[in-house]
Amino acid sequence: MPIMAKEAKSKWNGFSLKKRKEMPDGLWTRCPACEHMLYKSAVEKNLNVCPECDYHFRIDALTRIGYLVDEGSFEETHDHLTSNDPLDFNFRGTTYRQRLKADENKSGSKEAMRIGKAFIKGRGVVLAVMEPNFLMGSMGYVVGEKLCLAVEKAIEEKLPLVAICSSGGARMHEGVVSLGQMAKTSAALAKFDKEGGFFISVMTDPTTGGVTASFAMLGDCLIAEPKALIGFAGPRTIAETIKVELPDGFQTAEFMLEHGFVDMIVHRKDLRSEIARLIDYCQK
Amino acid sequence: MAIAQDKNPEKIGDGDYLDFEQKVADFDRQMDELRRLSSIKGIDYSAEVRRLQQEQVAELKQIYSQLTAWQTVQVARHPKRPLLPDYLNLMVKDFRELHGDRCFGDDRAMVAGFGQIGREKVLIVGQNKGRGLKEKVACNFGCANPEGYRKALAKMKFAAKFGIPVVTLIDTPGAYPGIGAEERGQAQAIAVNLFEMSRLPVPVICICIGEGGSGGALGIGVGDRLAMLEFSYYSVISPEGCAGILWRDGSQAPEAAEALKLTSKDLLKLKLVDEAIAEPLGGAHRNIHDTVYNVEQYIIRTLAVLKRTKLETLLENRYAKLRAVGSEPTAVLRDKEHKTKIKTIEIKHVKPKSVPAKA
């Protein structure tokens, strides 16, 4: 017995921080909420919602647009805008330009937002969808600019504006320029409000920081996806600051609804019809 | 006046030297020693003291003309740096504080009230970090909760109703990240502030007097003019936070501070602030009166300009100013579209037959 124990010990080389390889890539996926093993194709068929526990997976902008708009109706504009690194950000050899390149390759998107005109159940809208995979969906000046362009388009064509938010906040690589985008988008929306425009903001997992503290919270109607993380400071920041364990369900969509900061929580499969109905109610 | 003030805020004590000011501290120590000797032994060392003073001034000039970003952050956080109550006491006549957001409570981190600066009636809104532990705790270290932002907005709307200009003095490490703050909608409170301040129908002057921390600073920082004190900082995230996110190591803050371009010099270069208000030699904490005077003069001068502007123009300018932050890609884009259009037309007119099929 002692020999066996010794053998086992020699094989064991400590806990690894690497992810354990339990499943072949691409076929299976694990739900982060209920930890069920799920067929990827089954999840995709179910609009990237866990069939077991209704967890809404994070999805990229194009998939989101595919779920939301009438087939083939999305006309993207300004898709070539990229940031030109206003600060020349360089922190110990990590440059912002490298990050931009890497995330462009990873997400296939040039920035963290796509805007364009589309139809939702036959209702024309201007759509602004954030890309959570591009630098955490953070708001740099291109995102701010694109949202303002979308607002201007909506004013010009008298269409409702729908924004799908999923973002980690302001983009720190752009410093105060990105902070300025909070003011810029809010000012544009104030103008939109004055013109009588209708703005629906849909908050998906995660919507935090500078995006929540600007345009995401300024919708005439605020919709959240079930269990989405919505808040100002991230949960880790709060836990570190106040050194208290956070209560269960803190900063979820349900928490926000309970405290009166969103109008409704809508399941991904109902989002299309819900937006269409709201537009019908508020159309002049 | 309900706001307590430090007994002797101007005296720089032993613990108040920043770590890059050791030489300055040495000079002070030597001068104190000489003064002590002269009083005991009755020898006149005044020439010597004067020489030391001159050298100290040269040293301070040298240090403060080339502060690094991180040193600037340290100056901005200096415990003796003038805080909101100093400005209220020295610059504002007849200050009348207004409390409460009419919804939840009265946030001590945010101070609002009417007062007179120069000959102008204004509403002053600002964050108070507090001096001394007791006051600091009462003020939550300058980190406002949602009720603070709602209070600020409520008072600004009140002032706007009667055409009274607004002056905001920004000095906060950031909006408070706590459970209660989230429950009461920190994000919503700030968002609404940005929304309403962008169209507040009176002149709004924002001045960063110390720390300009992220959304918490911006929550009262949207207006016609944004100025900064020379050694204050204004940033999207604290240097510690930035280093923590990028390197999981908050001790790399000095380098992060450099990368974030948060000093008045850099921001002026990037055209993100309108003016850097000069600080006296050796930073605001060495001469509170001069600092406050400079800020006062800036406010008076700027208010005179803004009050002359017609309200419509004022609001248009404010919108254009906010809208222009980082809108250069659109400008390039418009230019591009314009050029391509002209090109196609030209080709069509000159050579109608040989137009290639490609776009």
Outline the structure in words:
The complex is a heterodimer of chains A (284) and B (359). With 284 residues, chain A is α/β, with parallel strands linked by helices. Chain A has 2 domains: 57 residues, no CATH class; 225 residues, Alpha-Beta Complex (2-enoyl-CoA Hydratase, Chain A, domain 1), CATH 3.90.226. Chain A is 36% helix and 18% strand. Chain A is built from 10 helices and 11 strands. Chain A has a 7-stranded mixed β-sheet, sandwiched between helices. Chain A has a two-stranded antiparallel sheet with strand order 1-2. In chain A, strands 4-5 form a two-stranded antiparallel sheet. In chain A, strand 8, helix 6 and strand 9 form a beta-alpha-beta unit. In chain A, helix 5 packs parallel to helix 6. Chain A is globular and about 45 Å long. The mean pLDDT of chain A is 86. Chain B is of the alpha/beta class. Chain B has 2 domains: 49 residues; 250 residues, 2-enoyl-CoA Hydratase, Chain A, domain 1. Chain B has 15 helices and 8 strands. In chain B, strands 1, 2, 3, 4, 5, 6, 7 and 8 form an 8-stranded mixed β-sheet that branches. In chain B, helix 4 crosses helix 13 and helix 10 packs across helix 11. The N terminus of chain B is likely disordered. Chains A and B meet through strand 4, helix 5, helix 6, helix 7 and helix 8 of A and helix 7, helix 8, helix 9, helix 10 and helix 11 of B.
What's the pLDDT, averaged over the residues of chain A? 86
In oligomeric terms, what are we looking at? heterodimer
- Cα shape of chain B: globular
Based on DSSP secondary structure assignment, what is the total number of beta strands of chain A? 11
Instruction: Quote the CATH topology of the largest domain in chain B.
Output: 2-enoyl-CoA Hydratase, Chain A, domain 1
Domains of chain A, number: 2
Please provide the ordered H/E string of secondary-structure elements of chain A: HEEHHEEEHEEHEHEHEHHEH
Report the CATH C-level class of the largest domain in chain B: Alpha Beta
Total beta strands of chain B: 8
Our estimate of the beta-strand percent of chain B is: 5-15%
**Total separate domains of chain B:** 2
The termini of chain B sit apart by 72 Å
Determine the CATH superfamily of the largest domain in chain B: 2-enoyl-CoA Hydratase, Chain A, domain 1
Ranges of chain A where pLDDT stays below 50 over 5 or more residues in a row are none
Q: Extract low-pLDDT stretches of chain B.
A: 1-9, 332-355
Which chains share the greatest interface? A-B, 65 and 57 residues
* Rg of chain A: 21 Å
Count of helical regions of chain B:
15
- What's the Cα radius of gyration of chain B? 25 Å
